[in-house]
Design a protein that fits this description.
48 residues, alpha+beta, two-stranded antiparallel sheet, two-stranded antiparallel ribbon, 2 helices, 27% helix, binds zinc ion
Length: 48
């Protein structure tokens, strides 16, 4: 399981619909809103 860096929810990488790559690492999200929040300010969330 991966962790949604925005809301800290656990997300299954195999079924995750929302993901983004940032500096070579893939981040998974539970919802489009979490993905949008991350992409808007990745540095706020990436140190998890
Ligand atoms: Zn989320």
């Amino acid at each position: 399981m991966a962790k949604d860096p925005v809301c800290k929810m656990e997300v299954d990488e195999n079924t995750a619909k929302y993901k983004t790559e940032h500096m070579g690492k893939t981040y998974y999200f539970c919802a489009p809103g979490c993905k949008a929040a991350f992409e808007k300010d990745p540095h706020k969330y990436m140190h998890m």
